[in-house]
Amino acid sequence: MTDPFHLPASRAEIQALQKKRKREAFERAKQAKWYQGKLDHINPDHLDEPEEWAKIPILDKEILRQWTHQEFMDQICIVGKREIAEYWRSGGSTGKPVYYPRTFADVENGMLSWRRAWGVTETPPGELAHICFPIGVHPAGQVWARGAHGAGVGVMWAGAGNAMPTKAQLELIANVEATVLVGMPSFALHMANIADAEGIDLRQSSITKIITAAEALSDAKREKLGRDWGAEVFDVFGMSESGLMGGEGSAHDGVHVWTDMYFIETVDEDTLEPITDGRPGLFLVTPLVTGHATPFLRWNSGDIVTLHEQGSSGHRYADLFPMMRHAHRTAGFFKVRGVNVNHTEFEDFMFADPNVNDFQVVLKTAETGLEDMVVRMELKRGVAAADAVDALSQRIRQTFEVAAVTEVLPNGELGKDFEKFMKAPRFVDERV
Q: What are the residues whose beta carbons fall under 8 Å from the beta carbon of 117, sequence distance 6 or more?
């Protein structure tokens, strides 16, 4: 197979491509109604000068959510209906979703961006991937599967648990012996929880590699996935607004971003001034080859990252492409009796406990009128529940300064609820 990944020859070639493609993206944006009057003061001949590029206004989802779909199409889309190949739904689990039109050129370039994920993770032709992303208008599942074919990787279009029950997916993996699991980390953890409840040791399965996307992958999640599946875990990063933007190599030291396809930058969270000294900042991306219908410039993804020039995976991707590392994803929190509890921090805390299979936090109003934080959990088989829960309750109080009500569920109980959703609802507010 000739090079299916179309990698540039050098970083010098990437710079040349960026120069050309930034100008093209800028000219496309000038055709959009929302950008009219907002780019007139910018010299298109000097877009490679950071000071000039920084004059371009930042675009974010809050702006888009003000509009109806028709208003969005009128303000941002620059092509006619006959040029649209498909629509990609935004991936957030909350808020108003946006449906992005994609031209045939956008889809073709999007396929290339997803195809490169198989290259950076060094997944060779002939492997069989079990795709457990949702299959539907959100692009993740179907684009992953279509992109795999271009890399010579076979696929099982399983979908998420609401399309194929988790037990059936586990049976399928056992029967057809897929070697790579591709999905959201939360669903891979959920699969491991169901497997434990069924007495299945996933460390003995055919899966040797897990590729995760669509959710932040913390160290605690990575370690638990590796521990439960006995597999090497790779993270990749993408978004509906652009495509798959990059992935980890074997060093797992950051996500290599395809900078010939996406121009990336970081800015200060408060001042929005460009960051050049390696500090964490808001991650901005300008799609260079997937913005023919919706020409976004300087899209604010809501991620907090650091940028690094070089990784240590020792292959062509590490040589060519810089890396981004998540500092943290802009995350939710709730306040319990005056105490802020960060969702991401609490999730990491729970998954770091080897006795815990899965959990859910439910906020309730007690009969006394006070707020209760109820931690519902499922434990590993064979664990002494009373001792494990007592120790966990003490550590919750010490770490988060809040007393939790604990509830141990039969294994598999949470899974019955989680399978109804695209993303597992681990934090639920039922206060009145």
A: 144, 147, 211, 236, 244, 247
101: pLDDT strictly greater than 60: yes
User: Where is the domain boundary, 281, 298, 329?
Assistant: 329
Transcribe 75-131 into DSSP letters.
HH--S-GGGEEEEEE---SSS---EEEEEHHHHHHHHHHHHHHHHHTT--TT-EEEE
Provide the 8-state DSSP code for 297. Answer: S
Is residue 6, in this structure, part of any structural domain at all?
Answer: no
Q: Would you give the distance in Å from CA 295 to the centre of its chain?
A: 22
Maximum CA extent, the chain: 69
Q: Using one digit for the tens of pLDDT, what is the confidence trace for 253-287?
A: 999 999 999 999 999 988 999 998 889 999 999 99
SS3 233: strand
338: in domain = yes
- Residue written as token pair 């001949």: 45
Sequence-ordered list of residues with C-beta below 8 angstroms from that of 118, at least 6 positions apart, any chain: 147, 148, 151, 153
Domain hosting residue 160, numbered range: 11-329
Is residue 310 included in any domain, yes or no? yes
DSSP assignment of 379-407 equals: E-TT--HHHHHHHHHHHHHHHHS--EEEE
Q: Which residues contact 279 (CB under 8 A, 6 or more apart)?
A: 266, 268, 306
Sheet with 209-212: strands ordered across: 154-157, 128-131, 180-183, 209-212, 232-239, 243-248, 255-257, 323-329, 299-308, 281-287, 262-267
* Domain finish residue from 329, 362, 391: 329
Q: What is the pLDDT of residues 311-338, one digit of tens each?
A: 999 899 999 999 999 875 444 667 776 6
Phi–psi pair at 107, nearest 5 degrees: -65, -45
For the chain, what is the domain count? 2
Question: What value, to the nearest 5°, has the Cα angle with vertex 424 and ends 418 and 428?
Answer: 95
Contact 318, 253 (CB under 8 A): no
CB count within 10 Å of CB 302 equals: 15
**3-class SS at 135?**
coil
Instruction: Specify the pTM.
Output: 0.81
Clarify whether residues 99 and 200 are in a common domain: yes
374 vs 98: CA distance, rounded Å: 33
* 286 and 415 together in one domain: no
Strand 255-257 versus strand 323-329 pairing type: antiparallel
**Exposure on the CB side of residue 302, measured as CA atoms within 13 A:** 15
Residue keyed to tokens 């993206």: 25
